[in-house]
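User: structure tokens for Peptidase M1 membrane alanine aminopeptidase domain-containing protein, please.
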Amino acid sequence: MKAILTLALSIFTLGLAAQTQWGAKFEQIDNLLPTPNQYRTGSGEPGPAYWQQQADYKIKVTLDDTNQKVTGSEVITYHNNSPSTLKYLWVQLDQNVRQKDNLGAITSGGSAIPDNAKAIGTAQAQSIFGDTGFDGGFKLMSVKDTKGNDLNYTINYTMMKIELPEPLATGESFNFAIDWWYNVNDRGLIGGRSGYEYFKEDDNYLYTIAQFYPRMAVYDDFNGWQNKQFMGSGEFALTFGDFEVEITVPSDHIVASTGELQNPSDVLSKEQQKRFDKAKKTYDKPVIIVTEKEAIANEKEKATDTKTWVYHAQNVRDFAFASSRKFIWDAMAVKVGNNTPLAMSYYPKEGNPLWERESTIAVKNTLINYSEMTIDYPYPVAISVHAASIGMEYPMICFNFGRPRADGTYDDFIKTRMVYVIVHEVGHNFFPMIVNSDERQWAWMDEGLDSFLEYMTMKKYYPDLPYNSNDPASIVPYMKGSKDYQRPIMTNPEQSMQLGPEAYSKPSAALVILREQVMGPELFDQAFKEYAERWAFKHPKPADFFRTMEDASAVDLDWFWKGWFYSTDHVDVEVANVKWMRVKGEGQTFEGQVQTQGGNLGEGEGADGNPFFGQPQELELTDTQVRGEYRGEIDNDAIRERFAGKNVYQATFTNVGGLATPIIVEWTYKDGTTEIEKVPAEIWRYNEKQVTHMFVKDKEVASVVFDPNKELSDTDLENNSFPKPASNTDSRFESFKKGNGN
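Assistant: Done. Predicted tokens:
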């Protein structure tokens, strides 16, 4: 009995080892995903008990253009919709990332003076020495309840814990007020997602103001409080709410903002109001609301009095604005389903003529294409603001680079950079501003999905521009790199080794492959749209995306998520061998036998010049008899007749890179014609290292190439062809690739 048990355990262990060796990439990923529950279902949709918090803000903020300072006060109404009773609240103080000795700076570990360097630049010195000389961070003046009582709070770098006077039960709300100020950073000197740009020539500033107010952290069913520190790379996790914001600026400034302008008659001239109203009914081209001539005049005035611009925004997760006396402003209406949002652009004269020609049109194109692939754009405006060397997104507004040369000229490269960053940043309205993922934890859920839609939009609206980002071919240099400097897509952005590929271009390339080569456009588009509809104005997690894509398509994608998102494997498939056989027909005979790939091109080549060397191997089809309980007969002659004279190519593929992938091959025939054929990735499910597949052809093949159009991110093109040449310069190999056969 013991011997039998030992044998059984041995067989089980061997089977488990074999499964680990050969089937691991196709195991289901349920063990990697959270267990479905009443909040998030196994289908990937919100559960019947799904809930989320709400935070409403009333903010008054003043921009000091003389001292580059923001002063503000806010009242936050926090609604506890969770099933939990809360004893404290967490508030984000993201400006504190610019305090000296902030956590991100003192733990960066990436700055070093090059060996034997005798001099370094001043800006580099600031970064390496960890001292910008800038007095950054929020200066809190008061934290009180609405009765004026001080609230106890503790600041931990970029997070503030507020102790509640009484526990906040389910269904209750709590109001509290914060007064603060902070110095605005010079982006040209010390960088940052927001700040100011100084124009020395006309002595003016352009402000892009964000993370300017203390913001509620997210409390949800998945994490509890998402109070992970802001260290610079991981962006934001935010709660939806309604905003009423008053922005006081110099009277000659123009303000672009999240939300709808409530008092145009107080801040715009009568002529500007007329133009603004006209833009709301104009669909064919942008209407100039503030002209370049007016902006240049504003640059010279330097007003000392102020105006207050009032904006309201409903159901947004954040708020940002831009302000400058340099702004030119144009706008046009866009038809999106039953909605008519305004596409708008604000830019200094340094952006023209490029921005006047292209920016608002790019906003329009983005709203239309993203809406078609997700949900109809629901907000009243979408704004592109021109600011140097930045691409950053907020609800209804984004800040974008792409500046012509000083003389106003530009080429296609400058235009392409400007257009794609506008598409990308405006596109962020959908991910994560509407489909509100947790950027602090999962950068790819907004950056990767948005980069994919950016690629789709550029491909559709700008096919003639030299845009070559976010597709399978563009990620190859990264995928070929050392694994020591790579981390999976499912990595927190603060731990990412190369954030650009790992959060942007690799997930985008993966989704392109998923759409074009795995699922097909129809199934992919249906499932992707389903995800957007399910999670619009909610807080999805990675499992919700993975599960929805499968639930809405009936395509098992666990192998895909596991390989592309949880590993650093790459695509490198070798066409190891192709064996040529021909089915014998009536009266046919063959001489000779196939010779498989040799060391040099032409070795064993037959008289007919076929690159598969010599004559095909004869393959005879013998009679098959019906077995078992069946009483019928097999028509062996009919089967022989159907296959008689067919060329059979037995191809062997080796998975060098380790990533499971569809097999796409291009057959070039002796007559010069070509054919593309695809085998689904599931072919690797029995053997992840090497597979063999039979291809039956009417014509003789001259050559076989894997991934001929570079659609799978294959990293080594040298092993993609059969027959393998002695060198890529061999003229006979080139003729075989063209199908000449001699």
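User: Anything notable?

Assistant: The chain is about 25% helix and 25% strand.
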